[in-house]
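Notes from hallway chat w/ T.B., transcribed later so I don't forget. T.B. wanted the structure written out for a chain they're using in a teaching module, and asked if we could keep both sequence and structure tokens in one place. Agreed to drop them here.
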Amino acid sequence: MKNTIFAFKDESPKYKQIYEQFKLFIERGDIPAGDPLPSIRHLADSLQVSRNTTLMAYEQLVAEGYIRGEGRKGYFANALEPLLFQDALVPRHKQTKSVTPVLIDFRAGAVDQTNFPLKIWRRIANRVLTLEESFRYGEPFGEVCLREQIATYLLQSRGVKTDANSIIIGSSTQQMLIHLGQILMGDFPSIVVEDPGYDGAREAFQFHHFTLETLPVYETGADLSKLEQVKSQLIYVTPSHQSPIGVSMSIQQRQMLIHWANKMQGYIIEDDYDSEFRYTQQPFPALSSIDSTRVIYLGNFSKSFLPGLRLSYMVLPELLINRYKDQFLHFESTTSLLSQLTMAKFMEEGEWNRHIKRMRLVYKRKMQCIVSELKKYFKQNISIIGEQSGLYLLVKIRLNRSEEWLIERASFFGVKVYPTSIYFIKNHSDETVLKFGFSNLTCDEIQLGVKLLKEAWS
């Protein structure tokens, strides 16, 4: 081999550069399987390095399986599976198609970065780091100080009467559902889920092999008459802001559901999804405020504050709390101790309530902006679902085009919109419906995004 092939290019160890060059030659097929490599002495002389340097490079290649040593015969290249290196063998300009960069992303679940209270959160987080209690493992069911703050907040905002002992802290709604399923699966083999409904919850229940029965949900609300036909004693619902349709249960429907749970001697799993952000009325009282003995309440800080914080919570009825704690007593907490302590201080100092109040106004303006833009550009070709609350809306699109086509065309113009087909089980919509989040977009970005969609779908 010519010395020019091995021109040393940087300050990294020379043995490493030799190793990487031979690795590349073998992966590309420049050194076919079975071909000999230069001897250690010959390679060292040609590269003007020590024999120890070339020996180290060869030993690394042997350890990873690229070459083999055969006694006094020397070193030989090993055969490699071509599929592992197919991308490396294809010229870069042929590896990828031309992809339009994403200009506007209508993803739901993001948060407004501009209005995030970064300085306040950082100040409190820095203070927490000076506390002695920050330098330990967390409590298995969550820090008492945070559970106490959540109990106070739930009473004030959702009418839920509970205490710190009944609250469990976790990392996400889905993770808490998996833990919950572990203690319920022995007594309850099946569960009713909304259709359409949150697909992440379905996956959690299917993880424990629950049989799924469905409750149809329409723009007018859930069809609770169907509960007369089910055998399950468990039901999972999102009553304050149904996921994904956004409709809320009336007080009559809530009472019917409570009556059903008492009659069946079962439980309602209430996921209080997006409950903080209603734009025409105050948030509705939780189901758990009506009857806490038959309702398992779930809440989280992801949508309303910060997804990366990984903080959720669950309020368990008295009959389940001891069973849950016995089951998971010896498991470590699934969420950060520092995040819990910081959030507890954040709530204690009133910053949480101020944040929610401020963001309700911010998101209301954004909701009005996206609704206005969609109606301006698409007029009678669309109808909008869920504009009264939440951080996203659904759009029925009457353009005789499939969900897949609309999403692909939007992507070609640099706009990401999202499907709703993943939420349906049996109760499929006859029309194409897409999901538009807006929480992390400015009004200018929303306007640009809708304008580009008009061009894409015309």
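Follow-up for T.B.: The longest strand covers residues 211-218. Might be a good example for the class.
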